């Protein structure tokens, strides 16, 4: 808990946490720090992978050392925090940071000495895009304000995954933790079985959902009313700009970092709902979504880095809640680590099943996790 290692009152802890969210910009700095180390040592192939080394090596360790954060705002505090512009500006500022990150990476790409260094660079920038573009884009598309929705869609377009806005809001949040949802992993399903199906089905579902919406309004698919077309157009424009800046290398880099970001997103989806399900009532309808249909991870550092994405249980119960007022619930299913550690675990299926399957079984048996 935050107040366990910072000797302050509840109110002071909330104030400290306000500025602690600035750590969410750390991923954007990591590739450039790795580049500095590469230039200092001459070992570009090694230090181009500095970002994944920190994100999936050091951060899980720091997560365990710093511990959990069970600090929940009261109702009055939540109302006040939701109105403060500082939190909104933090997420909106990710748009220029993400665009500068991509532009700078493309400019530097031809200067890297070999293909392995360029691969590490694409993986590193893809990790940045997963954090600043997809994660923050996810936060923004849930909001009512048009500026935030448009900013979120633009961020998603930088990873060629604009359809996520449509499918996530109209598909995933409706069908979460049911067999209908492509982003809810079944018990015993490996990540490698889940990933290609989730990506393909989610892209297809986005276009089907948008086509259905347009049909209901008696509007044509190929028209200005289709919200997918302009955002995928932005992705095409960015790809052309990447080609203009750095040729085929630039185009490959842009598509590669997009793929890394998309794979990380769907890996997180796998983690967030693995093995959980909504029961049917007597009429065959699924029960209402609550905080018990998503895995919760309450580790302080990774939650700050991801704008409280790991308080996913509360997010699905109340999708419009802003990140700064999402709450921890003890009776939600609890992951044994933050998302960075869980991503590594998910990529080793036998280890994932050994650790997580007993927790799924214990949760549904009513046993403490």
From TrEMBL:
<keyword id="KW-1003">Cell membrane</keyword>
<keyword id="KW-0560">Oxidoreductase</keyword>
<dbReference type="InterPro" id="IPR033885">
    <property type="entry name" value="AlkB/XylM"/>
</dbReference>
<dbReference type="GO" id="GO:0046872">
    <property type="term" value="F:metal ion binding"/>
</dbReference>
<feature type="transmembrane region" description="Helical">
    <location>
        <begin position="228"/>
        <end position="245"/>
    </location>
</feature>
<protein>
    <submittedName>
        <fullName>Alkane 1-monooxygenase</fullName>
    </submittedName>
</protein>
<feature type="transmembrane region" description="Helical">
    <location>
        <begin position="335"/>
        <end position="353"/>
    </location>
</feature>
<keyword id="KW-0812">Transmembrane</keyword>
<feature type="transmembrane region" description="Helical">
    <location>
        <begin position="115"/>
        <end position="136"/>
    </location>
</feature>
<feature type="domain" description="Fatty acid desaturase">
    <location>
        <begin position="114"/>
        <end position="343"/>
    </location>
</feature>
<keyword id="KW-0472">Membrane</keyword>
<keyword id="KW-0408">Iron</keyword>
<keyword id="KW-1133">Transmembrane helix</keyword>
<feature type="transmembrane region" description="Helical">
    <location>
        <begin position="86"/>
        <end position="109"/>
    </location>
</feature>
<dbReference type="GO" id="GO:0004497">
    <property type="term" value="F:monooxygenase activity"/>
</dbReference>
<feature type="transmembrane region" description="Helical">
    <location>
        <begin position="46"/>
        <end position="66"/>
    </location>
</feature>
<comment type="similarity">
    <text>Belongs to the fatty acid desaturase type 1 family. AlkB subfamily.</text>
</comment>
<dbReference type="GO" id="GO:0006629">
    <property type="term" value="P:lipid metabolic process"/>
</dbReference>
<feature type="transmembrane region" description="Helical">
    <location>
        <begin position="20"/>
        <end position="40"/>
    </location>
</feature>
<keyword id="KW-0479">Metal-binding</keyword>
<dbReference type="Pfam" id="PF00487">
    <property type="entry name" value="FA_desaturase"/>
</dbReference>
<keyword id="KW-0997">Cell inner membrane</keyword>
<dbReference type="InterPro" id="IPR005804">
    <property type="entry name" value="FA_desaturase_dom"/>
</dbReference>
<keyword id="KW-0503">Monooxygenase</keyword>
<dbReference type="GO" id="GO:0005886">
    <property type="term" value="C:plasma membrane"/>
</dbReference>
